[in-house]
Amino acid sequence: MADEILTFTVDTGNGIGDVVIKLRPDLAPGHVERIKELVGEGFYDGIVFHRVIPGFMAQGGCPNGTGTGGSDKPDLKAEFNAEPHVRGVCSMARTSAPHSANSQFFICFDDATFLDRQYTVWGVVQSGMEFVDALPKGEPPRNPGKIVKAVVSAA
């Protein structure tokens, strides 16, 4: 099977650009399948990055824009793996319950290895990290950046 990539066209408020993420079904097949399913339904189009912490991560994927919601699909069984949480890694957000990931995800700005084996890594940014870096900061940001369009394609 050919590698697949996820492209988020992101509006930072100061510009629009593509964040290209290599999907890693070898690490988290169930989570990658969920991301692809949600992208195919247009779920992520228009979703904001509601939690952006400098030096840590940018979080999005909540349909409410607050971090309180997910898709209408069942929560996922954890697929924790040994892939380290370093700059550009994409991982699923969850509650304190291990099997509670649904649609929310985060992209690491910097090394966050204290999250290793506790959150499911499902991808890594290949290009466009400068657009993640440019997202408005805050919990929540006053004028949050957002995903304009999400598309999955062959690499």
UniProtKB/TrEMBL annotation:
Residues 13-155 form the PPIase cyclophilin-type domain. InterPro entries: Cyclophilin-like_dom_sf, Cyclophilin-type_PPIase, Cyclophilin-type_PPIase_dom, Cyclophilin_A-like. PROSITE patterns: CSA_PPIASE_2. It catalyses: [protein]-peptidylproline (omega=180) = [protein]-peptidylproline (omega=0). Pfam families: Pro_isomerase. Belongs to the cyclophilin-type PPIase family. PPIases accelerate the folding of proteins. It catalyzes the cis-trans isomerization of proline imidic peptide bonds in oligopeptides. This is Peptidyl-prolyl cis-trans isomerase.
